[in-house]
Amino acid sequence: MPTTGPSRTAVEIASQPACWREAADTLPHHRAALPVRGERVAVVGCGTSWFVAQAYAQLRESGGHGETDAFAASEFPLGRDYDRILAITRSGTTTEVLDLLAKVRGTAVTGALTADPATPVMTAADAVAVLDFADEESVVQTRFATTALALLRAHLEAEDALPAGVRTVAQAAEDAERAVAEPLADAVTDAEQFTFLGTGWTYGLALEAGLKMREAAGAWTEAYPAMEYRHGPISITGPGRVAWVFGPVPAGLADDVARVGGTLVADSDADSGADSGAGPGSGSGPGSGADGSDPSTSAALDPLADLVRAQRLAVLLAEAQGQDPDRPRNLTRSVVLSVPAGEDA
User: Fold this and answer.
1) How far apart are CA 154 and CA 118, in angstroms?
2) Which of 294, 251, 307, 252 is closest to 274 using CA atoms?
C-alpha cells in the first residue's frame, strides 16, 4: 500500500510512553472518578475497554485495594451490590455503557474514564476522568486503552496497593520506549497464527493483543490463560505459529512449544525478572524474542510495554497485506446502537 509516512495508528502507538507519564502526573486531577480503598467495585467496558477492565480488576484485588470484578457492559449483573461502578469508554458514546450507567444511577457511585469531554458520559457518570491527551483519530484503540490502565496502575501505586513485583508506571514507560524502537523478528512478522497467553492481570493484555491483531490485520489469533494452553490450544501450535506469553512463563511450557515446532515469544515478565520457568526473552524455535534478541542478554519488558509490540505487529501485518490500519474493515470508532420505538434503551 503506497504511503507518504507512518499511519496515524503507528504514530499513536509510538506516543504511548509520553501518554503513560502524563497519566501518572495528572493523577491528582482524576481521583474523584477512581475507586476508594476498600470499596467493592465493578469495572465495565466494551471490546478493548473490557479487556483493560479485566487487567485492572486483577491488579486492584491482588494488590489489596478491594474486591473487584470486570464485566462487558452488556453482561453486567443488575441487582448485584457494588459500592462503585467504573466505566471505561474512549468515545463516551458507547450505547451499552451509557445504558448501564443510566440503569444503575442511584444504586452505586459511578465513575468513568474517557478521552472526549464533549460526550454523554460526562453527565451519565457521577465523576469522570478525562484523558483527552490520549485521544485517538484511529478506529483501532491503542494509546487510550493503555493510558487508562497506566492511570489506574499509578493510582494503585500512589495508594501502596500495587501488587508485589509489578513495576511502576515510570518503569513501564521506559520499557515502552524500547518496545516502540526495537525491531520485530522475522519469526513473528512471518508467522501465520498467534496464540496470546497471560496470567492474572496479564490475561487481559493477552485478550487485547489478540483483538488488536484481528481488528487491524484480520490475523488468526487466539488468547487464553497461560495454564490453559496445554488443555487444548496447544493443538494449533506448530511451525510458523507463535505462542506469545505476557508475564511469567509456566514451568515446562517453553519445552512444550518447542516439542510441537512452534515459536515462543516471552519478552515480558510480570514479576520484574523473577524466575518463571523460562528466562526473560527466552523462546523455542526461531527468533526467540519478538525483537530477535539474545535471551541471555535481553532485559524483560513490563507486560504493558510488551503489548505495544503486539500493536506494532498488527500495523505491520495490515500494511503488508495492503490494508489501511487506520480504517479497518467492518469497524467504527464507537458502537452507537439505534433502539426501535417502544423498546427500552
Assistant:
1) 25
2) 251
